[in-house]
Amino acid sequence: MAAAGENLRINGDRLWDSLMEMAQIGPGVAGGNNRQTLTDADAEGRALFQSWCEDAGCTMGLDTLGNMFATRAGTDPDALPVYVGSHLDTQPTGGKYDGVLGVLGGLELVRSLNDLGIKTKHPIVVTNWTNEEGTRFAPAMLASGVFAGVHDQAWAEAREDAKGLKFGEELDRIGWRGDEPVGARKMHAMFELHIEQGPILEAEGTDIGVVTHGQGLSWTQVTITGKDAHTGSTPMPMRRNAGLGMARVLEAVEEIAVAHGPHAVGAAGHIDVYPNSRNVIPGKVVFTVDFRSPDLATIQDMDAQMKARAQKICDEMGLEIAFESVGGFDPVTFDAGCVSAVRSAAERLGYSHRDIISGAGHDACWINQVAPTAMIMCPCVGGLSHNEAEEISKGWAAAGADVLLHAVIETAGIVE
Question: Phi and psi dihedrals of 154, rounded to 5?
Fold first, then answer.
C-alpha cells in the first residue's frame, strides 16, 4: 500500500455546488433549510443523494429504519468497510451545512477517488443516518442509536411527532424503508465530518478541529406546580407563582454550570408555562434542564446539586416539584487510532488544527460504541448553528473534506 501524497485533494467547487443544490430542497423562510426527517422534503433529498451516489458508481443499501449506505467497492472482498457520513435531515429552522456537509463530503471523497483512479483495499461506505436531529421524533440520533443497540427498534418506530404521527408509519409513507436489518453491518471504522456548531475554531483562526471526545449530557424534565391566580388582585404574599420558582431554579442551573467549568454547560431550552396568559400568575411550568460535560461524574454532580437546590427553592415557596429523566448519554472518548489518522491528515496537508471536544450529540457518538470512530470539525461563522443564518466558507468545507479524504484512505489502504 502507498501513502497518500499531500497534493491529493478533493474538488472543493464540486462539493460546494452539491451543498447548494441540496439546499434547494426543503428551503427555509430565511435562507436556510426546513428538511425535517421523514417529510416529503426529506424523501426528495434522499432521492437526489441516491442518484448522485449511483452516478459515482456506488451501490445503495437501505435498512428498515431508512439508513442509507452507498458503497464504493474495495479490492479485498473480505475487508470490512470504512464508513463516512452524517445526516441530511435538518431542524425546522436549520442551516445548509449541519449534517449535510458530512454526507456530501463523503460523496465528494468517493468522486475524487474516482477522478484519480485510486483504489482502496477496504470498501468505503457513505452513510445518511435517519433522524439525527430528533426535532420531529425525539430523541436525537434515533436510527444510529438503534443501529448501535442503544434503542429498541419497535420503540423507535412508535415515537410520535407533535401531530401524533408515528415514526414507522411516516417512514413507510415516504417510501424509504429498506429490507436490511438495522445494525447488521460490521464496520472497520467510521469518520464523521461536521461543522463545529461552536465559536472556538473561527475565533482562533484554526482550520480543523480534531475531535477527541464528545460531551455527555443529561436532560431532566422539571415540573413545578403552584396555583393559577389573577395577576392584579392576588396579594404578593399569597401567591404560589410557579413561574417565579422556575426563574430561581434556572438561576441555580446557571450557577451550578459555571462552578463546574470550564467545560461544563447548563441551561433550559424547552419551557412551557401554563396557562400562559397575560393576566394569570403561572400555576404550572414544565422545563428541561440540559447539563453537559466530557466528564460523567461532573454531570452527575450537577444533576444532584440542581435537584437539591430546586427542591429547597420550591419548598420555601410552597410549590410542588417533580423531576423526570428524559434523555442523555455518557461522555464519548473517540478511538485513538482514528483520532490519530485525522490529526496526521491535517498535519500532512498543512492545515492548522487543534484538539476539540464536541458539545453536541452526533451519530458518531453512538457508532463509537460498535466500531472505531472519530470526527473532524470545520469552523462555522460565529459558532452559529440550528439557525437559518448558519454559514461556513467554501475553503473551510474543502479543508474538512480534504482531511476526511486522507484519514479515510489511510484507514482504508491505497492499493497500487
Answer: -60, -40
Binding residue per annotation — 230? no
- The residue-averaged pLDDT of 154-174 equals 97
Q: Which stretch of DSSP H or E encloses residue 287?
A: strand 284-293
The residue with cell 464496520 is 187
Q: How far apart are CA 406 and CA 375, in angstroms?
A: 13
Task: Supply 281's cell numbers.
Answer: 400568575
Residue 133 labeled ligand binder:
yes
DSSP 359-391: -S--HHHHHTTTS-EEEEEE--GGG--SSTT--
Alpha-carbon span 370 to 155, nearest angstrom: 20
- Whether 98 has a binding-site annotation, put simply, is yes
Q: Is the pLDDT of residue 203 over 90?
A: yes
Q: What is the pLDDT of residue 255?
A: 98
Alpha-carbon distance values, 184 to 61, 76, 148 (Å): 12, 20, 10
386 is in an annotated binding site: yes
Torsion sign (Cα): 42, 134, 383, 402: negative
Question: How far apart are alpha carbons 194 and 53 in whole angstroms?
Answer: 20
What are the structural domains, with CATH classification, of the chain? 12-214+331-412 (3.40.630.10), 216-329 (3.30.70.360)
Q: What are phi and psi of 394, to 5 degrees?
A: -60, -35
Residue 98: phi and psi, rounded to 5, are -60, 110
Give the closest residue to 363 by CA, choosing from 375, 379, 348: 375
